[in-house]
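From the methods appendix. Each design record in this collection lists the tokenized structure first, followed by the designed amino acid sequence. Records were kept in a plain field format so they could be parsed without special tools. The example shown here is representative of the layout used throughout.

RECORD:
FOLD TOKENS (130 positions):
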């Protein structure tokens, strides 16, 4: 059974994922327009938006296995987002470097959150099987 505090946490995490994707887009508009950055930016846009989409999809999962699959995909997208943030060239823009560091911290925090959710689902699955 889903409690109101659980629903609130789900809504907060969804909003956090949406804000992350929006912040990534805002950050990318400030970067130098090199061929490499264009490629990397496309990848980052894809992974940062997939993160939230997978989490939302998990909310409608019909069973625990499907829920876990979606959470693991969200985790994978958070990891990929951190990777693409690392490779992007910020040029000599100090503000862009600081913004990237903030986005990296958020990507790492989202990785920890999705990792913890996956671990809890796995732990609950093991305890119900025992």
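DESIGN:
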């Amino acid at each position: 059974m889903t409690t109101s505090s659980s629903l609130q946490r789900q809504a907060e995490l969804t909003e956090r994922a949406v804000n992350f994707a929006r912040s990534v887009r805002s950050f990318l508009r400030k970067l130098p327009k090199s061929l490499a950055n264009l490629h990397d930016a496309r990848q980052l846009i894809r992974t940062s938006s997939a993160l939230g989409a997978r989490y939302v999809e998990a909310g409608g999962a019909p069973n625990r296995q499907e829920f876990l699959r979606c959470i693991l995909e969200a985790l994978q997208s958070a990891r990929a987002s951190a990777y693409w943030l690392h490779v992007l060239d910020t040029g000599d823009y100090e503000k862009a470097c600081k913004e990237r560091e903030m986005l990296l911290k958020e990507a790492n925090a989202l990785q920890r959150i999705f990792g913890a959710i996956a671990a809890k689902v796995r732990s609950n699955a093991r305890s119900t099987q025992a």
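APPENDIX NOTE: Residues 94-129 form the longest helix (36 residues).
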